[in-house]
User: Fold this.
Amino acid sequence: MAPLLYVAFCLLAYAVVQKRLTKTALTGPMVFVAFGLLARSSGLGMIESSQTDVASVVDVVFQATLVLVMFTDAAALHFSSWRADAALPGRLLGVGLPLTVVVGGLVAAVLLTDLGIWEAAIIGAIVAPTDAALGQAVIANPRVPERIRQALDVESGLNDGVSLPFVLIFIGLAQESADAGAIATFASQIGIAVAVGVAVGMIGGRVLVRAAKAGWMSTAWSSIAVISIAGIAFMAADGLGGSGFISTFVAGLAYGGATRGRIVENEAVAADLGEALVQVSFLLFGALVLEPALGNLTWPVLVVAVLALTVVRMGPVALALIGTGMKGPTVLYMGWFGPRGLATIVFAALVVTEADLPGTGTIVTVAAVTVGLSVLAHGMSAYPGSQRYASWIAGRDDTAALGETEPVHQHRFRSRTRGANEAMHVSNEVHDTTGRGS
Assistant:
């Protein structure tokens, strides 16, 4: 009971100051990771990693959170509308992400000599996806050109689903010596997941559309139904031997396509619940993952984590943006603000549950340290960094002619940034009307 009471208190404490914190260098993940470290046995002793029931709850919370986040992010994508704006996010996902996986794997292979080549590749894949929740001001700040915010938003929303097949395939290759059928098994998982996801998302979306048009379904239950569809996609695929996460992601894409323009958007409840679970996940991450990982920290692991957040991310992004006409500060801005978060944590947990590899401990430690550093570094730099970049844009004589300021066709941002977005608008309205910063 004590851990649940502590989590509830932390949620309440954060809720009453959340809007104010958006104008500071403190972010939700930073606050909740700190809460988690404090709750650990070396702090308050509120949460113990040795408790089997707590560990089981953590696994459920992490998975449920990623399920909701992946589904709502995918459902929010308007394929027909994004097509005209696909150049930047397409480069980040189609060029930058694969290069990040490759470079990350090579860095891990060179520095972590106790790992096999495919174990190093797993590290490259699990530290590749980004998480906008760690630096919401980067996407929510309306002073930053919408084209740049949109590209980072779409990338963040889709790259966890794009990265997961790499993780599964590399796990299969790493197990190949012990299990000759490992690769075929993981390929089958992906195939089953895609089929189930398409079916569940398409059918579920059409059922909700019909029910809404017939007047059989209230808005509240329409929102609850979205959560059910995400859960069905995950559990059905998992029960049939497929990847529940890939199924959830595909189901979100299919659901979005089936309901777009035919039903009032109803993902808000799922998105809000997902946002709360994201913060709880960071609390549990701080208490049960990061704190033990810090005890296993070595210099090679720290160097890999630092490089994963800098060279491994920024180099591929710079290469991906060649030919776009983006200026140096924009390339730097987009390269730096690729924080690592929930997906990296869950993917590392998959390595523990899906594979029996000699390097599992090192993989989990690298993932934990990378996310911990990202929470701190990207959290502290998100608000001031976005403001400084926006001021650079505004201060140029050729602002209107910059490729960064080209108008976009789809003005939608992910629900997880909604609260921060509202606060940032208020903050900048005050700035504009008074001439002073907050």
